[in-house]
Structures are given as structure tokens and as C-alpha cells.
Amino acid sequence: MAPEAARVPRVIVGVTGGIAAYKACEVIRRLKQSGADVVVIPTLAALRFVGEATFAALSGNAVATDIWGDVQDVPHVSLGRSADAVVVVPATADFLARTVQGRADDLLGATLLTTRAPVVIATAMHTEMWEHVATQANVRVLRERGLIVLEPAVGRLTGPDSGKGRLPEPAEITEVVLQALRRRGTTADFQGRRVVVSAGGTREPIDAVRFIGNSSSGRQGYALAAMAAGRGARVTLVSANVSLPVPAGVDLVEVSTAAQLDDAMHRAASSADVIIMAAAVADFSPAQVAEVKLKKGTAPAAIELRENRDILRALVESRRPGQVIVGFAAETGDSEGSVMEHAQRKLAAKGCDLLVVNDVSGAEGFGSATNTVTILAANGSQQAFQSMSKAAVADAVLDAIGGQFIRTQ
Ligand SMILES: Cc1cc2nc3c(=O)[nH]c(=O)nc-3n(C[C@H](O)[C@H](O)[C@H](O)COP(=O)(O)O)c2cc1C
């Protein structure tokens, strides 16, 4: 179906009274840069942290501060109705509690009751406030209602404290909002499908504190999980050593080693329609693991390595009828062949349906926000894409998987 004629999407940015309110400015700036029409609704507490003039200048729109301004436009109803997405950044503990109650005693609360657009909530507060049973119960209720509540990040908080409670990075919050906008109006083409995604990088212990690892950030796997959930799938995310917010509506299984990832993938695969192996899994692990930390001067002359089971190949060998299996290959060219030659050989050896290939010899790939991929299919077809965000890559991979469903049914 042809896409709708471009219309400028409207994003309402709610700002509540947390110390991270100044970071909302960066989210507003990024949303404007992406072409959105941004209207800011700060709470009275937020205006004690950042002035109305800053929000007005950055958004290019008048700032809506209370229900009693411009009453002829009925703002407590019209703003919510006009939104294509709403994001609250930062969201205080107090705001979460009010939203659970469905309070409409300020313009932001009324807007949340009147909007039918996706709502993204980026929480930020001290660790004790976040961990309190009341806050956790509020988050659970909001997620059950379909709001996307982002977990706070771990890091430096106000003053000398650090821990969980820090606002996620403005770039990540913006990306979640843009994903929500992209999904709006699209059909839930993965409705009822069960999708299992692995993400991150495994760690193979050498002793009690050291390990052999890799620099996978998990971003691509997390983007795939978020996108699949947004397209209606029931998603299990098997995550190895990733410190990113868990996408809304996704079941998380945390693992660390290749053996644990292997085990978790096989368990989840037994009921899956789609398996996506985006994690970077160690091919080898130390044959012996010291239970204590090896002391200086006692370094072993060599570390003996043992080959790990090839998880992708094992998943292919035990696949259910109709199951679509997707592998990822981070390749570099060498004297044995080009990136694509290595990838073609890998696709044939693994026997999966699709292989998403990215050339990691340049700056892109591990840890970067963008990716340049080619999707190879077992039937020989090949789709090469320009550099794009990992969310857009996720969309392209899911489109290719959708094509496989049509082929297998
Ligand atoms: C300096 C300062 C920093 C604050 N930071 C936070 C915060 O990060 N998260 C939070 O939940 N509350 C924080 N608060 C408390 C809120 O401002 C307070 O709960 C207020 O009622 C929130 O109002 P609002 O949700 O209507 O914006 C802070 C208060 C002060 C004075």
C-alpha cells in the first residue's frame, strides 16, 4: 500500500518537575530536527527548573501551561486529540502516581486522558523512589494500559549519588518516540506471532572477575525486539550483558555466557514462530575457569579454549515446521574473500532463512546508532540498504521476515 501523503506529525512533550527537566530541551530539539511539530506542556514544578521561554523558543510553539489559558480552544481536550505521540520527559514519581489515578487537575493529566496516541514515559528519580513498591506498582499498571514506560538508566544522580534512576539518554528517548510515530497507522502484521530475539554479547569467564567478551552493545537486538512488539508480536528478548532500557511489552530473559544463551534460546524457540539471533556469541570459552581471582604472578602460560556449540546451526537443526530463523553476521573482508563472499558461505553453512550482514570493518556496527546492512535470503535474493538507524534496520528485517511467512504458508 502506498504510504500516506507526508503530514507533519505532532508530538506533545510533557515535562515534569525533576532535576533532569533540562534534558527535555535536547529531546525537543531532536524531535524538531526530525520534522515534528512540538508542543510543550510543563507542570508547574517543571517551570521551577526550566523557564517557559526556553521551551517556547526550542519548540517554536506557545507553551501550554494550564487548563485556563486560551479557553476558547478547549486545550484540555484539543491538545490530546491533536497528538500523534506524547512523551513525558522526565517523568517524576508524583506524575506516575497521578497518571495511574487518571487525574486531570493539570493540563498534562487532562491531555493524557484525551489522547489516543502512543504515550512514552521517560522516568527519572532517585533509586529509592524508583524501587519503592508504590512506584513499581504504578509502572506496572501504566505498562498494562499500553503506555511505554522506559526504565531509568544507571549512573550519576543529583548530587554525589549514583545508581538506577538517571534519565535515559535524550537520543534514545527521541528514537522511541520516532518509532512510535512510524508504527502509527501501520497494521500489526506480527499480531499473535511469537518472536524470540537474542541481543548483546556473551562473556566467557576466565576467573572470578575476568572474562573474554566482545563490544556488542545490544542496540540492534533491542531495536528488533521493540519493533516486533510494536508490530503486534509477543516477544521474548534473550539479553546478554546489555545496559539499555527494556522495550515496552517485551519479556526479558537475562543471560551472560554462551552456554546460558544457548539454553535460553532453545527453551524459547520451542514455541516461537520467528527466531532472530542478533547477539554476538563467543565461539570459544576457556576450558578451565578459576573460582577465585588469579593473583598477580600466577598468570597461566596459556588459556586453553574450548569450541562452543553453534547456537544458530543447532536452532536450525531443531526448527519447528514453518519457523523462520534469522542470523546476523558481522563480517570483515580478508584474503579469503570479501564481506559478501564470507556472508554467502555463512548462510549456506548455517541453513537459516535470512542472514543480515553488516560490514564492521568501518566505524559502524558495534555500539553505533546506525547500521548499513544487506539482507540475504536462502532463495538467493539480496537487499542492500543505505546506512540507517538501528530501528529502521529492524523494520527492514521484519519486512523481510513477513515475506518469508508468505512463502512458507
Ligand atoms: C531539586 C529537586 C529535584 C527533584 N528531582 C526529582 C526527580 O528527579 N524525580 C522525581 O520524581 N521528583 C523529583 N523532585 C520532586 C518533585 O519536584 C515533586 O515530587 C513534585 O511534586 C513533582 O511535581 P510534578 O510531577 O507535577 O512535576 C525534585 C525536587 C527538587 C526540589
Describe the protein's architecture and organization:
- The protein contains 13 helices and 21 strands.
- The protein is α/β, with parallel strands linked by helices.
- It folds into two domains: 10-183, Flavin prenyltransferase-like (Rossmann fold, 3-Layer(aba) Sandwich); 194-408, Rossmann fold.
- The strands form six sheets. The protein has an eight-stranded mixed beta sheet, sandwiched between helices. Strands 2-1-3-4-5 form a five-stranded parallel beta sheet, sandwiched between helices.
- The protein binds flavin mononucleotide.
- Flavin mononucleotide binds next to helix 4.
Provide the fold topology:
Layout: E1 10-15, H1 21-33, E2 37-42, H2 52-59, H3 75-82, E3 85-91, H4 93-101, H5 107-114, E4 119-123, H6 127-131, H7 133-144, E5 148-150, E6 153-156, E7 162-166, H8 170-183, E8 194-200, E9 204-205, E10 211-212, H9 219-230, E11 234-240, E12 250-255, H10 258-269, E13 274-277, E14 284-286, E15 305-307, H11 311-317, E16 324-331, H12 339-350, E17 354-359, E18 370-371, E19 373-377, E20 382-384, E21 388-389, H13 390-408
Parallel strand pairs: 1-2, 1-3, 3-4, 4-5, 8-11, 8-13, 11-12, 13-16, 16-17
Antiparallel strand pairs: 6-7, 9-10, 14-15, 17-19, 18-21, 19-20
Helix pairs in contact: 1-2, 1-8, 3-5, 4-7, 9-13
Bound molecules: flavin mononucleotide.
Flavin mononucleotide (FMN) is lined by residues 16-20, 43, 45-46, 92-95, 124-125, 129, 158.
